Amino acid sequence: MNIPLDDLLALSAQLNRQAFAQPPVEGWLNSFLAVLSERFAQHGVLGAQISQVIGNVALRVAMAGRVPAETSPQHRLDDDSPLLAVLRTRRMTTMPNARLYPILVGNEAIGGLIVYVEPRGDYTKLDQALGVLTIQLGPALLQHLKTPGPQTGRLMRQIDVMRSLYAVTRDFTSATESHEILDRAARSLVETLRIDHIGIVVFNADDKSGTVIAEFPDNGMVGMRIPLNNPFEERLFTTRAPVVVNNVDAAHEIGPLRETLQQLGIKSIAVIPMIVQDKLIGSLGMDSFYEYHEFTADEIEAATAITAQLAITAHNAQLYEEIKRRAGQLELIAELSQRVTSTFDQTQIFQIAREETRRIINADMIAVALLNETATTFTVHLLVEGGPVMTSFAADRAALRFVLASGEPLIVDDISGSDDPDYRLFASSRMRAAAIVPLSAGGKSIGAYAVLHREPGYYSGIDLAVLEQVGHQLAIALENARLYMQTSQRAETERLMNRLSGAIQGQSDLQTMLLSTLQEMAEALSARRARVRLELPNKLPGVANKGIEG
After folding, report:
1. In this structure, are residues 311 and 275 in contact, taking their beta carbons and an 8 Å threshold?
2. Which residue among 89, 239, 258, 403 sits deepest, i.e. has the most Cβ atoms within 10 Å of its Cβ?
3. What are phi and psi of 399, to 5 degrees?
4. What digits encode the pLDDT tens for the residues 411-440?
5. Helix/strand/coil (H, E, C) string of 376-398?
């Protein structure tokens, strides 16, 4: 059973509203755990408690619901304690009747959330949901610690920053407003950390590119796609830790990226990973344009703590946009299906496919490749304005043959170096990336459908899945058109035969019969002239060859 996004958003909103209120709401943590237990009761949750560990002693900070009576408000921990294991590894673990989640602030584990559950089978969805909530719980819990430990003072400095962020987000609890939350949060970070620019990037599903979804001040970068094959993002994937460059001009180790940053006027930059449920989903960049900035450990820790909370909002925004995009694509595919199957004219089918595909998927070129009847030749139709442009290739030489042979869709990040004639045709128009799907009808491969883009590595698995649906509708339309043409030709042939038969039977002499037949055939074939020549054996003397012309 999936856990509704609304439940997570409601709990997150309550957590922030009560934890960062001034003055803090009395008993807010017990209240939060009570709501958590109630909301997730249908998923097997009986009760919950939060424990802080000081040295080898666990202190109960709050509890609600059905917590086992034998649990103690304070007890010593041995080295094999599951709670200690959670804090050391910063990963959730299980006990026979409970699930334990670390409560983190940045990379620091400051406590544990213990959720008591019924003996069920699969708690994957619950683990994912509570993993999200514990990320937000960390900064809030700092306000409720029983006894400040040796590292608490350093962490407490983040509270003011978190309050500033909460002031921005407290009025927004709907996933549909996530982008507005991120825009305001970026502004709040600029003002709080006194940095020149903040940019928030979420990684696309293929992990080959990212998209800027928020920034402040507005430099026109929202919506920009950023390739992830740069030193910053590669280090983020490898280390899951912030990447800091205090002096871009002297940072020769970042290679060509240094020149790009210099062209943008960036003198110092710090990139913070955004992690949700142990998956790197994006990054937050802090840029200094006007002077070199020495990022301090406190600034990086504060930014990391804030980014941990923003990661959830960014992830929600990404999921919402993806759901909205998929819904829109499904509507467009339904519209394409209706239009493309409403005609049997191949040229019109190609035009409709071009128009509708470009509404669904970004493409600089669209092509349909069809096999001839003997499967020896590909005819590639480039779907351009004004009608398709056709080029033929031997089927055993064209790269598209691999898609037909396997029956599997294919993404090619860069076709520019290929020696295959069909890819060279595409590359001659500066195409680089290609997504290709087979066209199949009645269990038989009839061709391939391709979209191409000038940016290398542009297409992802999501694009390919959508293109497969488009290709399926196109294959049906093309096969229907072929069958209609075949049926029409057969019907026309039978009609002509019936007319000829009737004309022949209605005549009494050979001359008139042949002339009538000739006229009927000429009319059927739209011929301006027709002739029948009768050849008689030369051995019959005195008989001349005759011809009839019509």
Report:
1. yes
2. 403
3. -65, -25
4. 998 998 888 998 999 999 999 999 999 988
5. CEEEEEEEECCEEEEEEEECCCC
The string over 305-332, giving b where at least 16 C-beta atoms fall within 10 Å of a residue's C-beta and e elsewhere, is: bbbbbbbbbbbbbbebbeeeeeeebeeb
Structure tokens given for 331? 């509507």
Structural class in CATH, domain 157-321: alpha beta
- Alpha-carbon gap, residue 137 to 368, rounded angstroms: 53
Taking the C-alpha atoms of residue 87 and residue 306, their distance in angstroms, rounded to an integer, is 20
Percent of the chain with pLDDT over 70: 78
pTM for the complete prediction?
A: 0.49
Token readout for 46 is 């009986």
As to burial, measured by CB atoms within 10 angstroms (0-12 exposed, 13-18 middle, 19+ buried), residue 383 is buried
- The DSSP call for residue 143 is G
Q: Dig out the tokens for 43 from the structure.
A: 């998923």
Q: pLDDT by residue (tens digit) across 490-510?
A: 777 777 777 667 666 666 666
User: Could you state, in order of their start, the residue ranges of all structural domains in the chain?
Assistant: 1-152, 157-321, 341-485, 506-549
What is the 8-class DSSP label of residue 155? H
**Is the distance from CB of 314 to CB of 169 less than 8 angstroms?**
no
Please report where in the chains the tokens 């029983």 appear, as a residue.
146
User: Is the previous residue joined to 388 through a cis bond, with omega within 30 degrees of 0?
Assistant: no
**CATH fold for the domain made of 1-152:** Beta-Lactamase (3.30.450)
Average pLDDT over the chain, rounded to whole?
78
pLDDT for res 17: 65
pLDDT of residue 59: 82
User: Which pLDDT tens digit goes with each residue over 152-162?
Assistant: 444 444 555 55
DSSP 8-state symbol, 3: P
Structure tokens at 302: 């504060």
Domains 1-152 and 341-485 equal at CATH topology level: yes
| Of the candidates 179, 46, 167, the residue with the CA atom closest to the CA atom of residue 117 | 46
- At the topology level of CATH, where does 341-485 sit? Beta-Lactamase (3.30.450)
